[in-house]
Specification:
This protein has 593 residues and is of the alpha+beta class. The chain has helices at 3-67, 70-73, 77-90, 125-133, 175-183, 210-213, 219-222, 267-319, 334-384, 388-413, 422-437, 455-475, 515-526, and strands spanning 94-101, 106-109, 137-143, 150-159, 165-174, 192-197, 203-207, 232-236, 245-250, 260-266, 419-421, 444-448, 452-454, 482-489, 492-499, 530-536, 539-547, 580-582. The strands form 4 sheets. The chain has a 6-stranded mixed β-sheet. The protein has a 5-stranded antiparallel β-sheet with strand order 2-1-5-4-3, with helices on both faces. Helix 8 packs across helix 9 (334-384), helix 9 (334-384) runs antiparallel to helix 10 and helix 10 (388-413) packs antiparallel against helix 11 (422-437). The two termini are 76 Å apart.
Length: 593
């Protein structure tokens, strides 16, 4: 099959994930839009409920102020009427303000007229509720008996000068004013509606279409949620105009003074913008897919196959490590420029790789040479010093520098340059220290496992091992020998240096120890581990334990260290994970073999 055909099939196949992603995104967007709409109608219902509660609370405050005036307390009919009319001028939503006695007979009205013709409101539920509870009460939607206008009554009982219940003051809140007030708070359309209903389920405000729906019963439409214990959102098709909607509601149980508030948005309005975007995206994707397939066929048939093959062959060579390979092309065009850019990149990579290797090698040699020179500069004057303590201090310092140099040398020789086979440099370190310090008969036993450590742990371990072994050789009993072990248990590395000394009298076991022990303790803390002494086999052992950073690698001759030769020049069988005996042979029979 030709490359052009393959590209054509690939373009078609590539459309399948895009289509799947489009469907997934469409579903996700619809879920997100639904959640957004639910949140929107819920928040708006809460805002309307808060606004309505503020209107009712404002009426309560007006009533509380007016009932404390002398005109009301003294039963001054004329003065009370004047007061009521002044309050109605300030609050344009109030149709009337009246005062009724305890029997429900109105004796004061903001609308001028004969007092004897004023009605009795003892049969009104809001009046009886106010008398019964002694608290502010809001009635249902009813036509006012004086005004004749649809209104909601706000009632507040008041006490006379003697302190007993004297009557109830009532505000007739105009339902048309309520509709105009909430119409100004939002853009209410046939797709986005607001419904306020009293506790009886009668519609007080319905936007839009308030004139049509006001006063009708919405009980059958809101019965499922009107007396719900908490506010929420419901998707319903039982609406007053039959349009399926998402309704955010505040039920009568927690609505202001038993009122139900519902803000609804139709499904068509919720998804209208998303549907338009989906249609537009589908058309664009369809045209794009057709164009992509056409371009893929043309490029595969005419322009792609040969230059792509040349670039692929060059890339395979570079990937295999042959940076000398070049993509040879002639002519003009984007592929030629791409080939030239690839060739320049390969040339720069080749030069950079060679330069990096040279710098790395030079830096490594200089570092190792510098450490060796530093050790020599410290060690040379130490040999001529007459002061034993000063000579010992310099010798120990030179040993520390050599330990770091040895670890760095092993790191430089490691295949990856990042890990060190600590068994190699520990064996070499033990051999050097045994030759330098075991002048009296004795033996040094080394049993180390081949463990690969990162340089961040290998370097501190080398320095700690130098200090521990130097102290053991210096302070241990010569005829008892010294044993060094390195092993891994679980995710911890454990270095043990044991000698035949006594824990109670061993020099490094006293108090805080000398500088060497303090240095090892500091290294243990740096590695996140611990250093602890322990009586073992009639002697003393110092154990350095710390957690491993990476997975360890164990095995014979790991890292190419090989076996360490014994003093007689005969190689021990096996690899670095086997037990090796180092040190000068004793002149008498040793006590530890």
């Amino acid at each position: 099959m030709s490359l052009a055909s393959r590209l054509l099939i690939l373009a078609a196949a590539a459309a399948l994930p895009a289509i799947a992603a489009e469907i997934y995104n469409e579903i996700a967007l619809r879920h997100a839009r639904t959640d957004e709409a639910r949140l929107g109608v819920s928040r708006q219902a809460d805002l309307v409920a808060t606004d309505l509660a503020a209107i009712f609370d404002g009426g309560r405050q007006v009533l509380a102020t007016l009932t404390s005036l002398a005109q009301v307390q003294d039963h001054d009919i004329a003065g009370c009427g004047v007061m009521a009319r002044q309050a109605m001028k300030v609050h344009d939503g109030y149709d009337n303000i009246v005062v009724a006695d305890g029997a429900g007979q109105i004796w004061c009205s903001g609308i001028e007229g004969p007092a004897r013709g004023l009605p009795n409101v003892a049969d009104r539920a809001y009046f009886n509720q106010a008398i019964k509870t002694g608290r502010f009460s809001v009635g249902e939607l009813v036509p006012g008996r004086i005004t004749g206008k649809p209104s909601v009554q706000l009632a507040l009982p008041y006490a006379g000068r003697e302190g007993s219940l004297a009557g109830v003051m009532i505000i007739s809140l105009n339902a048309d004013w309520l509709a105009r007030h909430f119409a100004a708070t939002g853009e209410w359309t046939t797709d986005h509606t607001l419904t306020l209903a009293d506790r009886m389920g009668s519609v007080v405000v319905r936007l839009p279409g308030n004139e049509k729906f006001r006063g009708t019963s919405a009980r059958s439409n809101i019965e499922e949620v009107q007396w719900s214990p908490q506010r929420g959102v419901v998707e319903t098709i039982k609406t007053m105009d039959g349009v399926p909607r998402l309704v955010g509601y505040v039920p009568s149980t927690i609505g202001p003074e038993g009122f139900y508030i519902g803000v609804a948005e139709s499904r068509d309005a919720i998804y209208a913008a998303l549907n338009r975007a989906t249609l537009r995206s589908s058309l664009i994707n369809g045209v794009g897919l057709a164009a992509a397939m056409l371009v893929a066929w043309f490029m595969g048939a005419r322009l792609v196959r040969r230059p792509v093959n040349l670039l692929l062959m060059a890339a395979k060579s570079w990937r295999s490590g042959d940076l000398s390979r070049r993509a040879s092309m002639v002519g003009k065009g984007e592929f030629i420029e791409l080939a030239m850019a690839f060739n320049e990149m390969a040339e720069h990579l080749e030069q950079a790789s060679a330069h990096k290797d040279m710098l790395h090698s030079e830096l490594s040699h200089r570092m190792m040479n510098s450490l060796q020179i530093l050790a020599t500069l410290i060690d040379r004057p130490a040999r001529t010093l007459a002061d034993t303590n000063a000579r010992q201090t310099l010798t120990e310092a030179a040993g520390r520098v050599r330990s770091m140099a040895m670890a760095y040398q092993r790191l430089h020789r490691s295949p990856d340059g990042a890990t060190v086979n600590v068994a190699d440099f520990l064996q070499a370190q033990c051999s050097d220290l045994a030759d330098a310090m075991m002048a009296t008969p004795g033996r040094l036993e080394v049993d180390v496992a081949p463990i690969l450590l990162p340089v961040s742990q290998a370097m501190p371990l080398a320095l700690a091992a130098n200090e521990m072994l130097t102290n053991a050789l210096k302070h241990g009993q010569a005829d008892g020998g010294v044993k060094v072990t390195l092993k891994a248990e679980g995710r911890r590395c454990i270095l043990t240096v044991a000698n035949a000394g006594d824990l109670a009298t061993d020099t490094i076991g006293k108090r805080k120890g000398g500088f060497g022990l303090q240095l090892v303790q500091a290294i243990a803390a740096q590695l996140g581990g611990e250093l602890r002494p322990k009586a073992a086999g009639g002697g003393v052992a110092f154990i350095l334990s710390f957690p491993l950073e990476d997975e360890i690698i164990l095995g014979t001759n790991a890292g190419g260290g090989g076996a360490i030769a014994d003093p007689g020049g005969v190689d021990e069988p096996g690899g670095v994970d086997e037990k090796v005996i180092l040190g000068r042979p004793p002149t008498a029979a040793p006590t530890n073999t």
